[in-house]
Specification:
It contains ten helices and two strands. The chain has 257 residues and is mainly alpha-helical. Helix 1 (16-31) runs parallel beside helix 3 (56-73), helix 1 runs antiparallel to helix 8 and helix 7 packs antiparallel against helix 8 (196-211).
């Protein structure tokens, strides 16, 4: 019984949304397994973790991230670029309806747990206000473990990675992390055009980015470390040389002819 919190299972995670993050990350890790058996079992188990956590972000990640990762990892291919251009043209024709649809989708997303969404919004406002008025440059260094009753006494600086960075580490820490994450994404995006490992890493980065708006990523690093290891492996992987960089000895007989 102790593992249930308002009908949400959190197993070995500290809370239910954290289990959703773990399930989303492990899903893409399992999907890259070369064995069909372990790929299936791992993906089903990870999806089950995401489902029983009742995390809205995990549901979005399992649907949107595969599509986004597939597109971003093949954006250099002419066929994909042509399809993206055609899709942009069609989206432009139905722009107003598409905007209304997205607004309704966001409203339904927030309405699934309206009380939770309101608490998160209030917590974000309090966090930003205290960051601006207390320590805007270097931050406070530690979270406020007990917030007011309006946010159900949740810690100030939690439940949002970017606002938490501002509150804990100030604008300096915010810029430092944003630059590191942006550089990592660009590096992985380039590598994903030719590396299967980088494509997995790209999916992991997209999950991390999505959950950065709902969780403190640094606080959950101790249970998401397999994904961090894969990111490190990807960045350490040697890229194949480009055609222009090949030396005459590397050119094959067919290429020379």
């Amino acid at each position: 019984y102790k593992y249930w919190s308002t009908n949400r299972l959190y197993l070995f995670a500290p809370w239910a949304p954290a289990l959703g993050l773990i399930g989303s990350l492990y899903f893409f890790l399992a999907w890259a397994d070369p064995s069909k058996k372990w790929r299936f079992l791992g993906a089903v188990g990870a999806a089950a973790m995401a489902w029983v956590s009742a995390s809205r972000l995990s549901n979005i990640c399992l649907v949107v991230v595969p599509v986004a990762s597939w597109f971003l990892s093949r954006v250099s291919q002419p066929v994909v670029l042509g399809g993206a251009g055609a899709a942009s043209f069609v989206a432009g024709l139905f722009g107003p309806r598409l905007i209304i649809f997205l607004e309704d989708l966001k409203r339904d997303f927030d309405g699934q747990r309206a009380a939770s969404s309101q608490v998160r919004a209030d917590l974000a406002n309090i966090t930003l206000y205290r960051w601006r008025t207390e320590a805007p440059i270097w931050g406070r260094g530690i979270i406020d473990p007990r917030g007011p009753r309006v946010v159900e006494q949740m810690p100030i600086g939690s439940h949002h990675h970017w606002f938490g960075l501002l509150f804990l580490h100030g604008i300096v820490g915010f810029i430092a992390f944003a630059c590191a994450m942006l550089w990592t994404f660009i590096e992985v995006f380039i590598r994903a055009q030719s590396s299967r490992t980088a494509r997995v890493c790209l999916s992991l980065l997209l999950v991390y980015f999505a959950y950065s708006f709902g969780e403190n990523l640094e606080a959950l690093a101790y249970i998401t470390w397999p994904a961090l290891v894969v990111i490190g492996i990807t960045l350490n992987e040697e890229l194949p040389p480009l055609e222009a960089e090949k030396t005459p000895k590397e050119l094959t007989h067919a290429e020379l002819s």
